[in-house]
């Protein structure tokens, strides 16, 4: 009886141990992409009840850092500038809870837009909204409020959110003068 829950926990922990930071790998193909403006706005951010509070400026800094880490000149060195704008809509940062009983997960909701800088044209008609969770890891299994600081939670959410933005951009190779076969 006790072996099944224990086995499940071991499997989940081993999967969590496999999670890696993909920024050390070569960047995804985005044609002649170079990051132009990196805009993060949290003017109207909403905090979901039961969250740790965070300042809008701290969210903006976390998102801007994640965008620069993923799309900046250390990874993309093309000659065509693209501007990325992200609005941070809402968040919940897990507070400390009772492990495995009430261990809330952290989440952030963002809306992303991308512009061709030279053409001064927005490439997506409407902002693309993403709801992003921390993901499963050894730190979040018992609730990240117990194992991570507020800043660590924000950094993890920002990393995951900007990764989702990259995945979205890869769904639109035509924005970067590429065909799906070139991806």
Task: Describe, in plain words, how this protein is organized in 3D.
Strands 1, 2, 3, 4, 5 and 6 form a 6-stranded mixed sheet that branches. The protein is elongated, with a radius of gyration of 18 Å. It is an alpha/beta fold. The protein has 5 helices and 6 strands; from the N terminus they run αββαββββααα.
Summary tags:
183 residues; alpha/beta; six-stranded mixed sheet; 5 helices; 6 strands
Mean pLDDT: 84
Query: Which parts are unreliable, with pLDDT below 50 for 5 consecutive residues or more?
Result: 5-19, 137-143
Largest sheet: 6 strands, mixed
N-to-C SSE string, H for helix and E for strand: HEEHEEEEHHH
Structural class of the helix and strand makeup?
alpha/beta
Helix content: 25-40%
What is the tally of beta strands? 6
Give the count of helical stretches. Answer: 5
Q: Tell the overall outline.
A: elongated
Distance, first to last CA:
48 Å
What Rg, in angstroms, do the CA atoms define?
A: 18 Å
Indicate the proportion of strand residues.
15-25%
